[in-house]
Amino acid sequence: MLLGVQWMITLDATVVNVALDAIGRELAFSAAGLAWVVNGYLVAFAGFQLVAGRLGDLWGAKRVFLAGVVVFTAASLWCGLAGSPVVLVAARFVQGVGAAVASAVILALIAAGRPGTGARTRAIGFHGFVGAAGASAGLLVGGVVTDAVGWHWIFLINVPAGVLIVFAGIRLLDDGGARPTGGRVDALGGVLVTGALLLAVCGLIDAGAHGWTSARSMIIGLVVMLLVGAFLLRQALAESPLVPPALLAARSFPIGGVVRVLVSAGAFGQFFVETLYLQRVLGYDASAAGFAFVPLTLVNCVFSLWISRRLCGWLGELRTLAVTLALLVAGLLLYAVQPLDATYPVDVLPAMVLIGAGIGGAWVPMVKIAIDGAPASDYGVASGLLNTAQQAGAALGIAAMAGVASTRTGELRATGALADGYRLSFVVAAILVASALPLLVLLSRRHSAGAKTQLPPS
Q1: pLDDT for position 450
Q2: Per-residue pLDDT tens over the stretch 187-246
Q3: Quick one: which of 12, 278, 291, 58 has its CA closest to 155?
Q4: Would you give the end-to-end CA distance of the chain in angstroms?
Q5: In degrees rounded to 5, what are phi and psi of residue 433?
Q6: Is the separation of the CB atoms in 179 and 63 below 8 Å?
Q7: Rounded CA gap, 188 and 190, in Å?
Q8: CB < 8 Å & 24+ apart, contacts of 434-442
Q9: What is the dihedral of CA 422, 351, 260, 405, to 10 degrees?
């Protein structure tokens, strides 16, 4: 049930991409307005994760999770019935809020409800699979549903599933005996961090149109830094801070969070650029581009559900993470050297397989290292922080890779070398992922490669 919600939430981040053309024609969107059908969801999703995670600790993860599903389901119905650009963008924003509230406590419920090492690791493996597979499946589902019954149904299909999950969750959901701790939410801290995240994502989106070094972009960046500084000061002085000091003091959690930002930047950034590469360079239509991701999804499934867990038992979590991140880097670099006449079986498929193995294999050790470093009383805010790290990383990666691709393509358009911009973007993605590898050294004392996690065979 928890993983079904995570699947819907992740899928809705990408399912709309291939339906944008149909939405734009029917609702008469402007080009800039149409982008907010995607960005409205992502901005709200990134901005409300941390506050929702803390609410889970204070009010109970089960209660917060169900409230998030209700909001997400109602907003999905609103999206499907929208008849104007303003209504659809507003509904997508509310849908993103519901997604953030529900998603922020899913890892907390998994960790609390499955205290055994093997059970927790298997559950995190499934969570990793649906997180990555949902993003790639969204590209396929969006195209098929839009062509078959219309774009409205990419949102309406969430409604019956959401209703069933709410009723099932009330009766069946187990939070492992955890009880709400009570207390207050640091409202000012929540406003500061949410404002910083919202403005940062908006700034990344805006920079593509106005330039990375424009006065507008520089001012937005300065305000974001001021908000982040004010948030950190608030956390140091507040009686009940939004981010507990014990969580930041647990070395594996903050370092694991930074690793998640970098990996998410490379992984989700490549989803965005890879789709453009398949369509604009290799000439695939939307449905064919969606089907092209099927091998990546299948390999991701095998690694996240079976292989990664076994590698953690044989090699230890740190070595497993290092090996699988190296596979992801190799897949991204393979895209960077593909010829203009690349074919799917010879050039694209091997890169897909390596990227799927890297994402699926890295997810379990990456999440487990971070969540195991969090005190049990702070699982909710830890889950929210990890999801915030993923969304912030995804936004950063998409913005960086799209900016590099558009700049390079603009420079080389006269020569017809359209693919060079995308190749350079894949190099950027590889650098982002590779930057996470040195951070593993900082974790080595706490998670020694020799101190392997013993995981029972499935």
Answers
A1: 39
A2: 788 788 778 877 877 777 676 567 767 888 889 889 999 999 998 898 888 877 877 777
A3: 12
A4: 21
A5: -65, -45
A6: no
A7: 5
A8: 434/325, 434/329, 435/262, 436/258, 436/259, 436/262, 436/263, 436/325, 437/322, 437/325, 437/326, 439/255, 439/258, 439/259, 439/262, 440/259, 440/318, 440/321, 440/322, 442/251, 442/255
A9: 0
Eight-state DSSP code of residue 449: T
Query: Residue 380: CB partners within 8 Å, gap ≥ 6?
Result: 53, 54, 55, 56, 57, 58, 61, 64, 104, 105, 108
CA distances from residue 342 to 280, 310, 337, 347 in whole angstroms, order as listed? 13, 35, 10, 6
SS3 content of the chain, % helix, strand, coil (to 5): 80, 0, 20
Written as one letter, the residue type at 180 is P
CB atoms within 10 A of CB 403: 17
Give me 235's structure tokens.
């956390």
> What is the value of pTM for the model shown?
0.75
User: How many C-beta atoms surround the C-beta of residue 27 within 10 A?
Assistant: 19
* DSSP three-state, residue 372: helix
Phi, psi of 8 (to 5 degrees): -60, -45
Digit-coded pLDDT (tens) for 272-324: 778 778 877 888 876 787 788 889 888 988 888 789 888 988 988 899 999 99
What's the chain's length in residues? 458
